[in-house]
Amino acid sequence: MAKGHRSQIKRERNAQKDTRPSAKLSYARVSVQKACFVLDAIRGKDVQTALGILTYSPRYASSLVKKLLESAIANAENNNGMSAEKLYIEECYANQGPIMKRIKPRAQGRAYRIEKRMSNITIVLNER
């Protein structure tokens, strides 16, 4: 049995909620391994440096992460009232999403499975 009234339980749960600005991209059509190459390059950096790195990175995942980072910056400014100059990337990670399974015909009636992987990318910012 839960302790307290339903409203009290909700109040306690909301008090523990993370207030840092963040943005999440679900079902990104890039594998976790490829997304992590880009995320490792910007982890811990300030926002302006990270945007510069992502702009000139040749990887496909960098365009997705750049758009996500711009969204997290907008969330910080509009929802939390933070200044963009003081922000840095505190956490960024990619978790595995669903896998689309496809079949490739091969010789002698065989079929090889192709797995098209997806990832869920999250960026969490904080102020210095």
Automatic annotation (TrEMBL):
Query: Which UniProt keyword terms apply here?
Result: Ribonucleoprotein, Ribosomal protein, RNA-binding, rRNA-binding
SUPFAM superfamilies recorded for this chain?
Ribosomal protein L22
Question: Might you report a single GO cellular component term?
Answer: cytosolic large ribosomal subunit
InterPro entries to which the protein is assigned, alphabetical: Ribosomal_uL22 (IPR001063), Ribosomal_uL22_bac/chlpt-type (IPR005727), Ribosomal_uL22_bac/org-type (IPR047867), Ribosomal_uL22_CS (IPR018260), Ribosomal_uL22_sf (IPR036394)
Residue ranges, annotated region (Disordered): 1-22
A GO molecular function term, named singly, is: structural constituent of ribosome
Give the protein's biological function: This protein binds specifically to 23S rRNA; its binding is stimulated by other ribosomal proteins, e.g., L4, L17, and L20. It is important during the early stages of 50S assembly. It makes multiple contacts with different domains of the 23S rRNA in the assembled 50S subunit and ribosome.
State whether it acts alone or in a complex, and with which partners, per the record: Part of the 50S ribosomal subunit.
- Family, per entry: Belongs to the universal ribosomal protein uL22 family.
Q: What is the recorded name of this protein?
A: Large ribosomal subunit protein uL22
Native species = Cuneatibacter caecimuris
